[in-house]
Amino acid sequence: MKIAINLLPYASYQGIEIYTANLITALAKEFPGDKFVLIKSPSSPAFFDIQAPNVSEYMVPISASRKSRLALAQQLSMRRAIKETGADMLFCTSPAAPYFIKNKVVTIHDCAYDRFPEFANLPSKWYFKSMFYAAKYFSRGVITVSAFSKHELVDLYGFSPDRVHAVHSALPELPAVTDELRAATRAKFGVERERYFFYVGNTRPRKNLLGLLRAFAQSSVRNEYRLVLAGKIDTRFLDVAREVEGLGLGDRVVQAGFVTDEEKVALYKDAAALAFPSLYEGFGFPVLEAQSLGVPVITSNTSSLPEVGG
């Protein structure tokens, strides 16, 4: 079988992109008799340059910084891409998919935009809802990443339970790090001698980062530990620096910003615990990553987190 995989929606390195890259690599290895065609644009990130004998690429000739142009391109270009590559089926690893191609399988990770409507403009709201309904009515089936997310799709969108398949994600392969790198990473972020709690993620409201900051400010250990925050610094949803100042935390909070995979593992390994108090997760990779490294986890009892964390 030849399977086309839609990579047009992706431009950054976050949870869905990590899921997609790891899944393609694993599929190519586990099913050497099948062929996988990656539908890309010149804007596709370099980490999708996956080398395997049964993996090839098809380039859609559009380079766009605006997501709206890429969204339009996948609606207009995908039928041609499937025809020219001779693909038997289209796999979309997020709900961003061509609407009216029925011979496809779609992954929907969660319903966060319904539970936490962080985008206020009507076009965005319409677009996200339309993708979910397109997956419901114009696909051969839907994959989701937890029993919790399957229940959400049934509850919020009326999906038939027998068309939604809950498939837990596997743990990504984490890089090995040396003691020297661990020491260098601690020095880089100014925690050479102090113990710290570690958070990795973005600043969207559902991540509950403000709740974490407030809890840390009220805790009895704030003077003995620091709080290291890893993830892109983004003030659209939360100005962390301003909140830290307002809570009187001074230098007790370290905004590490984007970290490499090696730095992330190093920060995990030396952390007192992962602090991941998210209010809503379709899966929750950081919980598994920390557990796999033997790091204690402080997390929520909401959404998929009890299921994933065990």
Which structural traits does this protein have?
310 residues; alpha/beta; 7-stranded parallel β-sheet; 5-stranded parallel β-sheet; globular
Would you give an account of this structure?
- The protein is α/β, with parallel strands linked by helices and 310 residues long.
- It has 11 helices and 12 strands.
- Helix 10 links the parallel strand 11 (273-276) and strand 12.
- The mean pLDDT is 92.
Summarize the helices and strands and which ones pair or pack.
Elements: E1 2-6, H1 15-30, E2 35-40, E3 55-59, H2 67-85, E4 89-92, E5 104-107, H3 112-115, H4 122-137, E6 141-144, H5 147-157, E7 164-166, H6 179-188, E8 195-200, H7 209-218, E9 225-230, H8 240-246, E10 253-257, H9 261-269, E11 273-276, H10 285-292, E12 297-299, H11 305-309
Parallel strand pairs: 1-2, 1-4, 2-3, 4-5, 5-6, 6-7, 8-9, 8-11, 9-10, 11-12
Helix pairs in contact: 6-9
Low-confidence stretches: none
What's the number of extended β-strand segments? 12
Question: Within the largest sheet, what's the order of strands?
Answer: 3-2-1-4-5-6-7
Largest sheet: 7 strands, parallel
Output the structural class.
alpha/beta
The rounded distance between the terminal residues' Cα atoms is 36 Å
**Basic shape:** globular
Q: Roughly what is the average pLDDT, rounded to an integer? A: 92
The portion of residues forming beta strands comes to: 15-25%
Q: What is the count of DSSP helices, taking H or I runs of 4+ residues? A: 11
> Helicity level, as a percent range?
25-40%
The radius of gyration over CA amounts to: 21 Å
Order of helices and strands: EHEEHEEHHEHEHEHEHEHEHEH
